[in-house]
């Protein structure tokens, strides 16, 4: 069985004073723009409770190939440019592609 592919974006917002405005911007602007651009199955985001400077956004696709293909689109280039325009050097980030190889829950057993 081929698993879903996840595009995971890990952002580090070093300055605690920037986090509330980053959170609002991501909720109101960036996540909706990314969903409209990527058309994922679903998208979600979270703040890391072990390291409050870390924000994670995930975009799920039918398979890894779809997630990987997003990295080469004009759409992601536009989103990256807008992110850089708004946040400049205040936020560092990485992108990773994850392959869901096993998923369990009581209802899936």
- Give unreliable regions as ranges: none
- How far the N terminus sits from the C terminus, by CA atoms, comes to 16 Å
Overall geometry comes to: globular
- Please indicate the percent range of residues in DSSP E strands (runs of 2 or more): 25-35%
Question: What's the CATH topology label?
Answer: Alpha-Beta Plaits
* Name of the CATH class: Alpha Beta
The tally of strands reads 4
Decide which structural class fits the backbone: alpha+beta
How many domain regions? 1
Number of helices, where a helix is a run of at least 4 consecutive DSSP H or I residues: 3
Biggest sheet descriptor? 4 strands, antiparallel
Protein name: EthD domain-containing protein
Organism: Entotheonella factor
InterPro entries: Dimeric_a/b-barrel
